[in-house]
Amino acid sequence: MHNNPLWNRLKEKAQQAEVRDLSHLWQNHNRHDAFTFEHGDLYLDLSKNWIDEEALGLLSEMAEHADLEGAIDKLYKGSIVNVTDQLPATHTTLRDPAHPNRKNNTETIYQLTDQIMAGDIRTGFGKKIKQLVNIGIGGSYLGPRLVVEALTELQSESRVPVYFAASVDDSLINQLFMSVDIEHTLFCISSKSFSTVETLMNARAVEQKLKLIEGYQPNETQSSLMAITANQDKARAAGIPDAMVLPFDESIGGRFSLWSAIGFPIVMAAGKDKFEALLDGAYQMDQHYKTQPFSQNLPVLMALMTIWYRNFIGLDAYGCLPYDARLRSLPKWLQQLMMESAGKMHNIEGEVIKYPTTPWVFGDHGQLSQHAFFQAFHQGVDALPLDFVGVLEKDSSSQNFLLFNLIAQGAALMQGKEEDHSMKGCPGNKPSTTLLLKAMTPQAVGQLLAMYEHMVYTLSVIWHINCFDQPGVELGKSIARDIQEHVENNTLNDMALDPSTMALIKKVMEQ
Ligand code: F6P
Predict the structure, then answer these.
(1) Strand 245-247 versus strand 185-190 pairing type
(2) Whether the predicted pLDDT of 157 surpasses 70
(3) Global confidence as pTM
(4) 298-302 average pLDDT score
(5) Is 196 in the same domain as 95?
(6) Is 87 in a helix, a strand, or coil?
(7) 183 is catalytic
(8) Cβ–Cβ contacts within 10 Å for residue 475, how many?
(9) Among 127, 205, 219, 220, which residue's Cα sits nearest to residue 173?
(10) What pLDDT was estimated at residue 420?
């Protein structure tokens, strides 16, 4: 990427003071029209960013130079795009009404949910299933959680209340056992690999607790444990009856898996119709991504903005601020999607690259963040790109209040304010993006999430990295396993660890 002559042109462009000066950029009276975009249920306003049409044009050329069009084609054709694992990435097939994968996937999920709702499949206590606990982490947690929260606003809207247990934590499991009606609860072990230690430890803890309860007699059609996995053999070996295993394919990346059987909690909570509409919304975005020119293509535009800020302006953070409690988990989901997918220093040939990739992604509910870290946005010395995400809602004064806050923050950051007392002044000229959903519908949520997924794929194509693997996560896990083993075997001193790490382990052991 950096060998390309466009790289130097963009570097020069980013050095120009005018392109970082919003008051100068707004001298172009066409700016609002030129930098706002609409597709389906999404409205995207990029006009408060440090960018002009020339820079966006150069970035677009860069995407062409990286053969983004060819890469999008490869994604949809099912070519190998995950070169490390030699796999295609097939999440888009799960949303395509013309692809057999969509029907096969949803039929399997619906068959099980129907049996559960009809009472044909019961818990290990022989009772009807009325609650669900999802035991999973990372992609086997963040996507389902985000969508369940987005589509079942109130617990009362939820057909079956869904709870989540992600990290290993005895207190969390104990608390769950106190808050759910255990005899009516199904525990769903969601794990693509079925080898994530955290998930398996939580599952084991749950099973042990269940076994201590009187009347627990699981069998083939009566089970308080089920599994969603791409590794059916391991689930079977763990004693989960076949009828209680929802499979999905290895070619669905964990971070891209909420559309697969991993979306089962969504169906349980929100129902089939909403899940279908979610898939339809994502499919609409898939079509948009595939067919629209880069200059109008929402995921491509979002990716180009990220490249611009990260590689040319030189900003290293990125904030996601949903102004809607229903989207409170969006920042965490996006954080995994971007940082696990694009936190890479090797290109797809395995060579070390010379340019930065993912920014640090963080965020929280916008209004809560206003009272936590927005001070630094307004008067801190740094600037960073921010996505303000809002949902339009008819006849809701509280929603309007939230949206006016969202809008005011973008305006305040851009305009700033001069004060007699200099410490009270805000410099302004801070960039932001505004993204509005026209309603909180499953279609709109599907479009939003698919847009971010394709944004990340676009980033990976331009950065020439593989966004579908995560080898870096393994190192910490294997050291943790080694420590555990050495502690158990009393051979800690054989470990080649630094004095700080060794002292910390000893502190834990001394308790
Ligand atoms: O954090 C690493 C990771 O492998 C993620 O990519 C994945 O989403 C998560 O762990 C959970 O993995 P699994 O679904 O296999 O339990």
Answers:
(1) unpaired
(2) no
(3) 0.96
(4) 98
(5) yes
(6) strand
(7) no
(8) 9
(9) 205
(10) 75
Separation CA 322–CA 365 (nearest Å): 5
Query: What separation in Å is there between the alpha carbon of 137 and the centre of ligand 1?
Result: 6
Does residue 248 share a domain with residue 166? yes
- Residue 226 C-alpha to ligand 1 middle, in angstroms? 18
Instruction: Decide if 11 is catalytic.
Output: no
Domain of 246: which CATH number?
3.40.50.10490
- Indicate if 153 belongs to the active site: no
Report the amino acid identity of residue 479: I
Residue 145 tokens read as 């959680």
Lowest mean pLDDT among 157-161, 290-294, 475-479: 157-161
Looking at the fold, whether 408 and 451 belong to one and the same domain comes out as yes
* Mean pLDDT confidence for 187-206: 95
What is the mean pLDDT of the segment spanning 342-360? 97
Return the higher-pLDDT residue of 390 and 395.
Answer: 390
SS (H, E, C) 400-452: HHHHHHHHHHHHHHHHCECCCCHHHCECCCCCCEEEEECCCCHHHHHHHHHHH
Residue 283, in any domain of the structure: no
Q: How confident is the model at residue 159 (pLDDT cuts 50, 70, 90)?
A: confident
What percent of the chain is predicted at pLDDT more than 70? 99
Pair of tokens at residue 404: 């006016």
Q: Which of 149, 183, 340, 453 is catalytic?
A: 340
From 168, 470, 475, 478, the mutation candidate for ligand 1 (largest count of ligand atoms within 8 A of CB) is 470
Q: Ligand 1: list residues with CB < 6 Å.
A: 137-140, 191-193, 196, 199, 254-255, 340, 470, 473
Do 268 and 296 fall into the same domain? no
Domain end marker among 249, 276, 303: 276
User: Given 29, 371, 394, 507, which residue is catalytic?
Assistant: 371
Q: Which residue's C-alpha comes closest to atom 2 of ligand 1?
A: 473
For residues 455 and 479, state if they share a domain: no
Q: Which domain holds residue 404?
A: 5-65+292-416+445-463
Q: How far is the CA of 136 from the centre of ligand 1 (A)?
A: 8
Mutate which of 260, 473, 474, 477 for ligand 1? The one with the most ligand atoms within 8 Å of its CB, which is 473
Q: Please check whether residues 314 and 242 belong to one and the same domain.
A: no
d(CA 290, CA 310): 25
CA of 461 to the centre of ligand 1 (A): 22
